[in-house]
Amino acid sequence: MWKFVKSALKKETWIQCDDCKQICFWGRSNVGKSSLLNALVNQKISYVSKQPGRTQFINYFQEEDRFIVDLPGYGYAQLSKEKIEEMNNWINAFLSQDKSPKTVFLLIDSRTGITKIDEEKINFLRSINLPIHLIYTKIDKLNQREKSALVKKHNEYLSSKLLDDSTHSFLISSTNKIGINELVDFIENNIFN
Fold first, then answer.
1. What is the CATH number of the domain that holds 27?
2. Torsion sign over Cα 174, 23, 26, 114
3. 82, 107, 149, 165: which is deepest, by most CB within 10 A?
4. Which domain covers residue 158, as residue numbers?
5. In 10 A of CB 189, how many CB atoms?
6. What is the pTM of this model?
7. pLDDT tens per residue, range 103-119
């Protein structure tokens, strides 16, 4: 059973472990991170809010030697510009300096696809050599034509080298449980194995 361990931001509060495995979930504010985390572990571990920018700390959830790390969303928060910049600096430091083994799942709203700020985050993650996978959320909001367009656009990103063959992608609906089992299987077999 997963349990909340702590909230952190500054380096001295991070959970440091060489022999544990961390999966980090990151994405724009209101992309559906909390809903996904709850669906992924089949229990309510994360507070779901309609208000963007609710997660303002690095939140750790643990089951044995495995950690889920919920990172604050980017792009919007009802905070001062200085506070947002400070938070972003700590997240970037956590991702680039924390030595605990980690894989990042970047959540993308399927209705908008990869935005400019998402591209910046992908480039940042690639520059620090972290394994990255994409989760297109809220897939239930798209009709078949829109889903096809999303897949086509994703394939263009593969061709343009923004993404590479090691980047897996998932089409997910936390509400309707679409793609959840495939994501769980991938995590269990490729990261938490």
1. 3.40.50.300
2. negative
3. 107
4. 3-190
5. 9
6. 0.91
7. 999 999 999 999 999 99
